[in-house]
Amino acid sequence: MSTEDQTQTSASSGEYENEPVPKNALKGGNKFWGMYAGEHAAGTEFMIGPLFLLNGVSLQNIVLGLLVGNLLAVLSWRYLCAPIATRARLTLYNHLERIAGKGLVKIYNLANGILFCFLAGAMITVSATAVGIPFDMPMPSLGDWLPNSTSFVLIVLGVGAVIAVVASLGYETVAKFANIASPWMVLVFLACGLVALKQLGVSDMSGLEKVWSESILVAQDGSAESTMGFWSVMFFAWFCNAAMHVGMADLSVFRFAKKASYGWASSAGMYVGHFMAWIAAALMLAAQIKTTGDTNPVPGPMANNVVGLAGIICVIVAGWTTANPTIYRAGLAFQAMIPGSSRFWATLAAGIIATIAGIFPAFAWKLLTFVGLYGTILAPMGAVIFFDWYFHRKGDAANLLNAAPAKSFNLAVLFAWLIPVGIAVYFIQAQGIKAWYFPLPCWLACGILFLIFSGKQKPTAAQ
Amino acid sequence: MKTILNILSLIGLALTIIPSILLLTDSLKAGQVTLLMTIGMVLWFVARTLRENLFRPTEVSTHAVEHDTPHTL
User: Fold this and answer.
1) C-alpha R_g of chain A
2) I want to staple A378 with a disulfide (CB 3.0 to 4.6 A). Which of A63, A72, A243, A353 is the partner?
3) How far apart are alpha carbons A386 and A417 in whole angstroms?
4) Alpha helices of A145-258 — where are they, by DSSP H?
């Protein structure tokens, strides 16, 4: 298909993947508030909150860290991502192609796809813990990095197969279902937190702090050692969505916004999903520890313990509606790598990789580290867009849209991306430094290196 | 019909959240909360799905299918 044909197709489908979104396709603010509120109450929230508790985060640090970190995330969306999106009005990939070239974007896309497969794998594990309840499946425990039973493997394979096939057949139906489910899921998270509070038997903040500390003591076999303080929680909250805000993936969302101020809509996602839902999920684990003594942060039984069937269904739906778009997107990334390949088979391959990853509970238990790594690897590309926009294009969309096409593989971008990310991955893997500290330095280093490396190859206007 | 489905779906949402608040005030028991939440869930999904299928025109949304990177966290 020629570029012109692609442009016509994307415009006629209303997606505008290869051109700026026109004024008549812009959307009102309500869409963005609803979308962010719904999409950030996902399957991952069931894992993240409890993992904070197991890492010994104090109640004060979790509340303050999330308040500040989420505020910084909202400000990143509002002042870094949305202003560029509402002026250039391009998708991340189209924007990046104009700077880095198609070849390099494919590499970035592949990195995205591979990371998505492992994220989807963790969500398949989450769903399987709920599906396994009626089958008396032995739940994996925090020490299990490998599958702990045959029934767990079979249930993960079953859940993964359904998710992979549904994703391969298309996206529309699941997207519609996810839209229907999201308001309900948000309320189930809230209800879980309230019921957990009741089970904890607390009536004031001091009582809650006491129960919280006791839960940490039980979870850590009496050591009460905190491996995450205020700064860890703050940086994690700020950068768990680093790929979307400073990483500029949400250019694809805000290109439809009438004004950059719609970036404030991200606060709905942060304070509903990444504040209320995380704390509610952490309270669920605290309640489970108090009522059963079980310290395993397994979402299915935790939700069942507080609100019964609605909780189990919520875990399944949250895991499924998170894994599905993730596998779909990974499939598109794989398809882009092999010209002429079928989307069905590419998506199915992504689903199979995700399912195999789901068999290993380690991906779910290590979700905090994985999410930090995900931001560290992907977010720096957003710095290339940001620094290019303000230093090379002078904040003028015409300078981007009318520029000559980038080379297929812009080495300045490649090295600006790989050098800081490579150093960060070394420190994370070899030195054991927490992954969520790295997206910010990597982002800044990538932007500065890009300016240095590309100093002599500034974009030229198209002839 | 549309109004009825809207009301039913709102009742479904109400049954999802209100029982947990009543539990906190000791006005309901835990077993009643799980039962009411299950009823709320069924009501919400049935009413909302019917409403979407019967009355909502197909439109282009800004949801994940259009995102380069779906929101998964």
Assistant:
1) 22
2) A243
3) 13
4) 150-169, 172-200, 205-219, 230-239, 251-254
User: What distance in Å separates the CA atoms of residue B50 and residue B52, rounded to the nearest whole number?
Assistant: 5
Rounded CA-CA distance A182/A363 in Å is 25
Chain A residues touching residue B37 (CB < 8 angstroms):
188, 191, 307-310
Angle between the N-to-C axes of helices A150-169 and A172-200, in degrees from 0 to 180, rounded to the nearest 10: 140
Q: What are phi and psi of A304, to 5 degrees?
A: -60, -40
Q: From the CA atom positions of chain B, what is the Rg in Å?
A: 16
Tokens at A249, concatenated: 């993936």
**Closest chain A C-alpha to B2 CA, distance in angstroms:** 16
Q: Number of Cβ pairs closer than 8 Å across A and B? A: 145
For A289-319, b/e burial (b = at least 16 CB within 10 A) is bbeeebbbbbbbbbbbbbbbbbbbbbbbbbb
Q: Where are the domains of chain B?
A: 2-55
- Backbone φ and ψ of A43, nearest 5°: -60, -30
Q: Which two tokens stand for residue B44?
A: 């919400």
Residue type, A336: A
pLDDT digits (tens, 9 = 90+) for A163-204: 999 888 877 777 788 888 989 999 999 999 999 999 999 888
Q: A326: which 2 tokens?
A: 């993730």
Nearest Cα residue to B70 out of A141, A350, A294, A243: A243
| Spatial CB neighbours of A211, under 8 Å, sequence gap ≥ 6 | A200, A201, A202, A286, A290
Which residue, A229, A77, A163, A317, is CA-closest to B16? A317
Nearest CA among A257, A206, A223, A316 for reference residue A26? A257
Decide: A219 and A53 in contact? Cβ < 8 Å: yes
Contacts of B65 in chain A (CB under 8 A): 171-172, 175, 325, 328
Of A27, A184, A252, the CB nearest to B67: A252
Distance CA A237, CA A239 (A): 6
Bridge-partner residues for A461, per DSSP?
A403
Q: In this predicted model, what pLDDT tens digit does every residue of A29-61 receive, in sequence order? A: 888 888 888 788 888 899 999 999 999 999 999
What SS3 class is residue A448?
helix
Q: A223-275: per-residue pLDDT in tens? A: 777 889 999 999 999 999 999 999 999 998 899 999 999 999 999 999 999 99
List, as one string, the DSSP characters of A366-428: THHHHHHHHHHHHTHHHHHHHHIIIIISTT-HHHHHTBPPPPSS-HHHHHHHHHHHHHHHHHH
Write the burial class of residue A430 (CB in 10 Å: 0-12 exposed, 13-18 middle, 19+ buried): exposed
Nearest beta carbon to residue B73 from set A252, A307, A371 = A371
CA A67 to the chain's CA centroid: 19
Mention every residue, 6+ apart, whose C-beta is less than 8 A from residue A320: A43, A123, A127, A159, A163, A174
Q: pTM for the whole thing? A: 0.90
